[in-house]
User: What shape does this take?
Amino acid sequence: MTRSRPASTWEALERASAAREGAPFLSFEGTTLTFGALRARALAFAAALAERGVGPGDRVALFLPNGPSYVAAFLGTHARRAAVVPLNTQYRAGELTHLVADSAAALAVADPSAAEAAGLAPLLPILDPRVAEESEGAAAATAARAATAATAATSAAVADGGPRPDDLALVAYTSGTTGRSKGAMLAHANLTANAAAVVAAWRWTEADRLLLTLPLFHVHGLCVGVVGSLVAGGAIDLRRRFDAAEVLEALGALPPPTMFFGVPTMYARLLDEARERGVALPRLRLWVSGSAPLSPETFRRFEEAAGQRILERYGMTETGMNLTNPYDGERRAGTVGLPFPGQEARIVDRATRAPLPDGEVGEVEVRGPNVFRGYWRRPDATAEAFDPDGWFRTGDLGWRSADGYVTLTGRAHDLIITGGFNVYPREVEDVLRGHPAVEDAAVVGLPDADLGECVAAAVVLRDPSTSDAARAALEADLVSLCRASLAPYKKPRRVAFVGDLPRNAMGKVRKDAVRALLAASGSPG
Ligand code: MLC
Ligand code: AMP
Assistant: This one.
C-alpha cells in the first residue's frame, strides 16, 4: 500500500483513528488505549491547554514518566500547534532551570509532587496530567448525550484545524560541548519524514507490536518508537522502564511483540539475564539497536543466543535516524549501514570540508527532510552546524566502505555516551570545581562492560598533603555532590586524585592522557 506521508503527528493520529478507531494502539500496565481513545485523550489535553491559553507557537514542557499520559500530552500539545519540550525526569533543579528559562515554556505537564521534588514547580505553571483523564470522562459523557456537542468541543481544541508541516513539534535539548545545552527545533515535517523513512526501511506495518522500554523524553523512544508506530499504524507495548527480567517475560506475552528497540546496554543485560535463567531469546521480526555503539561482541553473542542479527542504526536528536543496516541485506557488525531512503550522508575532511574517498576517516555529514530547523534562539550555533548546501555536521567521525556501509570511529567533540545517555565532561567538571577542596578536574569516558562507557574524573586537590583517609571521604563527597547537582547518571563512577592534569604545549588538558591515567588507576567502584 502506498500512501502519502502525514503532514504532522496529529494527522498521523487522525488517519489511524479514522481508519481503525477501535484497534488497540497503546498498552501500558494493564490498560489499552485504542487509536480512538488516544485521540479522545489527546483532545482532552488540548482542551486543558487551550483553557490555559496555550496556542500556536507556544512551548509545553513534559516532565512525565513513560505512560499513556506522555503520549496523549505530546499529541494534545501538537493539536494546539504548540511544541513539546521533553524533560529528562532524572534532571535536577539546575538542569531544569536552564531548560525552562531557555525554552520559555508556557507550562509543564507533570505530577505536582514530582515537580515539587525536582525543583520544577517554582519555575513555571504545572498542569497535572490527571486533568485530561477527568475531562476525557466528561467529554465521553457529553458525547453519549449529544455527539454534535462533542464534535464542536473537539474542533475548538484543535487550533486552526491542526499543525502545519513547518510548525515546530519538538524543541529537544541536547548538551553542547561549550556552554549550556541547546534546543534542537524539529518541525512536524522532520518527524513524519523520518518516521516514514524508518517505517519503509524496516518494513514496519499495522501488524507490528513494539515492545518499548526506552524513556519517552529522548528521540529514540519518542520519535522512533511512538511516532514510528503512529505512522505505521502498529501497536505499542509500553513499559515504565527497562528491566531485563521484565523484558524476557514481556517477549513471551500475548499478543507477542514483533519488535524491540534498545540501546546496547539493554542488549548486553538481556543476554546476561537469559543466560542466568538458562532460557532462549525468542525470535522477533526485528531487533534494533542504536544511540550508542553496539560492540561486535554483543552483536555476535546475540546472534548465537537468538539465531538472529540485531539491526544497528545511527541517529541524533537533531536529525532523527540517519543510517541503518539493511532489513533484507547483510547486517554488518560494527557498522551503522547506509542512509535511510530519501536521506543522504557523506564523509568530509574536517579541515577542508571536502568529501573524502571511501575508506578514509572524516566527519559524517547528513542532509534530508529529517534534518532539524536549527537551534532554538541560537542562530550562531545553527550557522556553525550547517554548510551552505544544507549539510549538517554531526560531529561524529567515520568512514565508508566501497559497498556503502558506514563505520563510526569516534566523535569530534568530547562527548561521553553512557548506557545511551549523553554526558558532556564540561558540566561534571564545573560541579567538581565548585567543591572547596578541588583545584581542578578533568572528566573522561572509560570503557565499561555494562554501560559502554562510564564517567571517570581526575581531580587535583588544593591541598596536596590531604591524607589517604581524607581522600577516600572526599571521593564519596564529590560523587554525592555530582549526584545532587546533576542527573545521577552523570556522576563519576571512578575518581582518581592526581598531582597535576596532563597538558599539551598550549596548556590544554590532554584527555587521552587523562584517560590512560584513570584506566591505570584501578577498577571502577
Ligand atoms: C542509570 N544510571 C546510569 C545510567 N542509567 N548511569 C550511567 N549511565 C546510564 N545510562 C544510574 C542511575 O542514575 C542510578 O544511579 C543507577 O545507575 C541505577 O539506576 P537504574 O534506574 O536502576 O538504571 P537502569 O534503569 O538500569 O538504567 C539503565 C538503562 C537506562 C540502560 C536502562 O540508562 C536507559 O534507559 N538508557 C536509554 C537512554 C536512551 O534512551 N537514549 C536515547 C537517546 S536519543 P544512583 O546514583 O541513583 O544509584 C539518541 C539518538 C539516537 O541518542 O540515535 O537514538
Ligand atoms: P543525542 O545527541 O543524544 O541524540 O546522541 C546522538 C549521538 O549518539 C550521535 O551523535 C552518536 O555519537 C551517538 N550514536 C547514535 N547511534 C549510534 C550508533 N549506532 N553507534 C555509535 N554512536 C551512535
In short: Confidence is low (pLDDT under 50) at residues 146-150. Residues 84 and 371 are 17 Å apart (CA to CA). The chain has three domains: 9-185, 242-412, 415-519.
